[in-house]
Write a structure and sequence with these properties.
This protein has 97 residues and is an all-alpha fold. It contains six helices and no strands.
Length: 97
Amino acid sequence: MSWDDIEEMGLGQLRLSPVLLYDLTFAEFGNAMRGHYKGIDEREKAEWERTRWLASITINPHVKKRITPKDLATFPWEEQEKAADGFSILRQIATSE
């Protein structure tokens, strides 16, 4: 990564002033960029979940059985959350023996 790339990210994406950018250590700059990208990911997830919710409330008046948003689609981050659930891991261990 060149210094020009760092300036483009710091001044453009993070909207830092040059003084603030040049005062950051590389570790601080990296943390700021990771936080920036996490924020983008969270907003994108919220938009997808809102779209799924809107689709479910649009469909529900036209079907007999009520449809929940998760009936329409399960997102990859929801599958990861389910896999990270400690109780389900313990349940799997207990039932496998």
